[in-house]
Input
Amino acid sequence: MKKIASIDVGLKRIGTALCLNADIVTPQDAILRKNRNQASHDISKFLKDWEIDILVVGLPKGGSSEEEMQRRIEHFVSLLDFDKEVVYIDEYGSSMEAKEMMQGVTKQKRDGKVDSLAAKIILERYLFSLKKGL
Output
């Protein structure tokens, strides 16, 4: 079984999630983003520490800033010290879905829980597409 991680790249935080066996996806602590170099270093360390084989990255599809965000996210991924498989998938609505899931559970703090829940949703979508053979 390959170890898979996903990231939801934001301007302030990067949500992270893992799938280490079968279909169980767990959100991890978000990485606070002070600057690009620090964030890419922290994500690279996260991927190395967990011995990740595949990195799934959410890309926003649709919307007015789609091309700009795609360029920024792909540039960020190019800064990572990671030479294994990288898969980009549509993250459309994952942050809204994560916020809805968190409603009533906790106050909307800026602690990265929503970001990592979005990363979990992105990874679950990827695993679902593998099962369906998409």
User: Anything to note?
Assistant: The chain has a mean pLDDT of 87. The chain has one domain: 4-132. DSSP finds four helices and five strands in the chain.
